[in-house]
Amino acid sequence: MKHDRYDMLAKENIKNLIFKMSTPAIVGLLVQAFYNLVDTIFVGRGLGADSALGIAGISVAFPIQMLMMGIAMGIGIGGASIISRTLGMGDSDKAEKTLGNMVTLVVISSVIFTIIGLIFIDPLLKIFGASEDVLPFAREYTKYILIGTVFFAFSAAMSNAIRAEGHAKFAMSVMLFSSIVNIILDPLFIFKFNMGIMGAAVATVISQIVSCLMTFHYYKSNISLVSFKPGYMVPDLALSWETLSIGMSEFIFNSVESLVFILLNQSLLIYGGDMAIAVFGIIIKVFMLTLMPIIGIKHGIQPIFGFNYGASNFERVRETVSLSNYIVFGMCMLSVIVVFLVPEQIFRVFSSDAELIEMGVPAIKISFLMMPFIGSQVVAMALLQSLGRSKQSLIITLSRQVFFLPPLVFILPLFMDLTGIWLSFPISDFLGFVVAVIFMKREVNKLGASIPQS
Q1: Each residue of 244-276: pLDDT tens digit?
Q2: What is the CB-side half-sphere exposure of residue 90 using CA atoms within 13 A?
């Protein structure tokens, strides 16, 4: 079975391989994004007249969740890159050491994050844009999410390692099962037990514990190509640094994203009040749902990039880059068409508040204008991370999130009020696309020069 997966990554038709590796991740991530939507929908429907404040509370808590995701994905993608390349080179011992160090890094960072978050929860939420009306809802939701950090971070980081060895279906099943648990528990806790927004958070934490247990079972079974050995949890400083440096772009991406959300929430509070933050919260949930298939492609192609680069099969890497770019462009276009066809219906799913819908329809249309250009940025980051090009992938991250979006969010509203904030998204998306294509093309050209000429 293990040799079959080696042969699959090294020899199978690239189009079939992308489909085989990405489909499980896409399904799992879509279900995961759907349960995030369900959280917001049930909160919006369960709080009645306070629906906009509840949705705003979840939106204000989102930067904290982005930081949690940054920790998990930074460690997960960094470790997965090493694991896929070392398996390609036949060095299973380093792959196992990498896995052990990943677990240690996840536990230490999660505990520190939880302690700091709980101690400073109110000041943090106010910085993130919580008004006095929104703060109680945001606090109630966030404190339980923080308690579950270690479970979330472990399963999220290790799912990358599972995909790195070509077992995408199991990673999908973990996300799928935990998401179903959350979807079932949400209405039970929110409506049956009358727990309100707290019920949504508790349901999420329980589902994360389930995914954590399933992931742990995977590594204690004979399914994995990489065995979990407790002795390898002793930190190897060089290996830990390699893991963190490769995954640093992903961590910074999520951390900067969190800082951008702070800027956005504060700007939205100034130019549109709590209602604008609620609109933004819904747009982000819809955006994440449409982005998940693209991230699924990323998860699917990273092991293909890493394994074949490690095995010096550079032509397969180039072919994967080309095909995946076409695929993600088509997927992004489809999401834009849907958003433009039924924007009002999208908002009515979350709330019947007329003011929310009126403000939200033009906002979501503007925000999605340049969605088709986001896919290539994701492919570029996947390629550079998988090849260990941490600096280049970091530049792609910073270009959109630091160099373009924050200045636009600050400047455009001065002339266009709230509309300027919505316009900052498509403009920064396009500029980020230009930077990503430059770096991706340069790397692909290098790979072409390394292919022996017949």
Answers
A1: 888 887 787 778 778 888 889 999 999 999 999
A2: 3
4 — pLDDT class (breaks 50, 70, 90): low
Q: Tokens standing for 235?
A: 């930190």
Three-state secondary structure of the chain: CHHHHHHHHHHCCHHHHHHHHHHHHHHHHHHHHHHHHHHHHHHHHHCHHHHHHHHHHHHHHHHHHHHHHHHHHHHHHHHHHHHHHHHHHCCHHHHHHHHHHHHHHHHHHHHHHHHHHHHCHHHHHHHCCCCCCCHHHHHHHHHHHHHCHHHHHHHHHHHHHHHHCCCHHHHHHHHHHHHHHHHHHHHHHHHHCCCHHHHHHHHHHHHHHHHHHHHHHHHHCCCCCCCCCHHHHCCCHHHHHHHHHHHHHHHHHHHHHHHHHHHHHHHHHHHCHHHHHHHHHHHHHHHHHHHHHHHHHHHHHHHHHHHHHHCCCHHHHHHHHHHHHHHHHHHHHHHHHHHHHCHHHHHHHHCCCHHHHHHHHHHHHHHCCCHHHHHHHHHHHHHHHHCCCHHHHHHHHHHHHHHHHHHHHHHHHHHHCHHHHHHHHHHHHHHHHHHHHHHHHHHHHHHHHHCCCC
Residue 259 exposure: Cα atoms within 13 Å on the Cβ side: 13
pLDDT of 189 strictly over 80:
yes
Structure-block tokens of residue 80: 């997965």
**Would the pLDDT of 128 be above 70?**
yes
Mean pLDDT of 309-338: 91
| Nearest by Cα to 198 from 148, 147, 140, 143 | 140
For the segment 68-124, what is each residue's pLDDT rounded down to a tens digit? 888 898 999 899 889 888 887 888 888 889 989 999 999 999 999 999 999 999 999
Contact 182, 37 (CB under 8 A): no
pLDDT of residue 454: 41
Phi, psi (degrees; rounded to nearest 5) at 133: -75, -35
Determine the longest span between alpha carbons in the chain, in angstroms: 71
Higher-pLDDT residue of 222, 383 = 383
Average pLDDT value for residue range 360-383: 94
Highest mean pLDDT among 21-35, 62-76, 230-244, 359-373: 359-373
Mean local confidence (pLDDT), 211-225: 84
